[in-house]
């Protein structure tokens, strides 16, 4: 009883600690995005416009005010839910609405890797520690090391080339290929105006409203990035599980469990793995948070318009409002990820006391 | 004793094959001189002297060394290995050749965008990669050692302040920060290198901090404090030499990760265009699907360089302290 009370206090304390962190994040992202490069107004209007037009444009977006006034206005707007409107990339669209549109796409891309990676990673780590220095272990470690070293953009490019060249159902290009499925209106117009509502997730929508062409197209476009992501992200969890399993398997209670005649399966799965998973769990939750912020390179290579894609195009084009919004959103995800990781850690491992 | 030695190593044989034998002993893991096996005592004596060296030299680590030597060789002798200079390889439109040509005698691996020779850019790219990786991680490791030690030694509010700052830096994706900074600053390489080094400090500082916390418990620190040593001296003379091993182990993995990060930035097109860089090469040839080899070779070189560093890091970890965690935080 006392323990759960402690726990609630701990969580409240952590959330309160998050508030100054969040304000700092807001200030830092504001200055980062404002000082990004040159003048976004000049950048947008192009070469040699009329000085009056420039001044008018500056006044319109509030860029002529002193930086600290801008900061205060920005903070006020932020907490009232107005994150500004995108300046160049998707002009005039509110940033929060744009993020609401692209974040589901990123979730669609990463949700299956998020679910699969811990399962396969832990399994491979257990196998690797069980057959230490045997052939299986060597193969799994080799895969792990390759996964840590392979540049994911190169892997994706090569995979795209080979698959696109040799498998006929794949083509180069981005989502919404109207040529491939001319019958479905959802490609040119997503969400489809005939639908009563849209969840933002293509897979859900296509199942709900029975648009099989969209479903097939979405899934086909997700396979390659998912394979790349899973392959590259497996390594960390596998290596961590292997290391902690090897450490746990030498403990006395494992010897006791074996001596009293437990099955090897029970020893590994119940006695060893539960203890070995404690350090791994932190990695899993942190990795999940990091993955939700978008797979930058995969989205670039496969032209998948998720968070990472918009992040890079915002930086390239100088859309300071959008990059600001996305950075804050990313920081929010990672902050809450660390919070959840810490709380989960205290739940999983009862030996840890709440500070 | 002397007699025994003479019996086992006839003097002539020793003179004759000494270098060869020791070379074999050093380089071939698990190699045993057949004469050694007669007397276990002698083997034990000889191996114990070189035990740490032999523990490091596992096959995987050895292959890592070979990869690294290959990359370093290319980096050092780049002017001899390629007939093109950096000016030719980075000037847009000076070389005048045809872009994206298949391999020929003139260009053994073909050419890429702006008619740059791929092989020459690969060789010169070794220099870029090694300079980037090693410089940044040197900065990061030095900063991490100093900050982590100060944080752990003094504790209290200094510790919590430094750790909060580290948390704050780690909230933002390092790659995005770096891209933003490189857009802000322009193509000033030293500042970018220093910034990247500074952004990589937090993991090293955390590692050092936890290591110093362990060392701080030792009696000799207390003895030094009782003896009246200044805190500066205790930190730099007693604590750091004893707590530094995790940093050394993580140094190599860190260099690998830094090379990956820099090539990734170059791949996005935010790198320095005046340097031959593997990431830029991949970016050039990314959409040229008919000339995929122009993107294949630079990626292979990245893989070799990073793999070499990672394998050495792993080998060192296994040899020195198997329980240590290696923090190879992927940014890509």
What features would you describe in this structure?
The complex is a heterodimer of chains A (355) and B (332). In chain A, 72% of the residues lie in helices and 0% in strands. Chain A has helices spanning 2-34, 40-45, 51-61, 67-79, 95-130, 135-149, 152-166, 202-208, 212-249, 252-259, 264-292, 296-301, 307-317, 320-348. The model of chain A has no long low-confidence stretch (mean pLDDT 81). The relative contact order of chain A is 0.15. With 332 residues, chain B is mainly alpha-helical. In chain B, 72% of the residues lie in helices and 0% in strands. In chain B, helix 8 crosses helix 11 and helix 16 (278-285) runs antiparallel to helix 17. The longest helix of chain B is centred in the middle third of the chain and has 37 residues, at 118-154. The interface between A and B is large, with 50 and 43 residues.
- The helical percent of chain A reads over 70%
Q: How many individual β-strands of chain A?
A: 0
% residues in beta strands of chain B: under 5%
Helix content of chain B: over 70%
Derived from helix and strand composition plus strand pairing, the structural class of chain B reads: mainly alpha
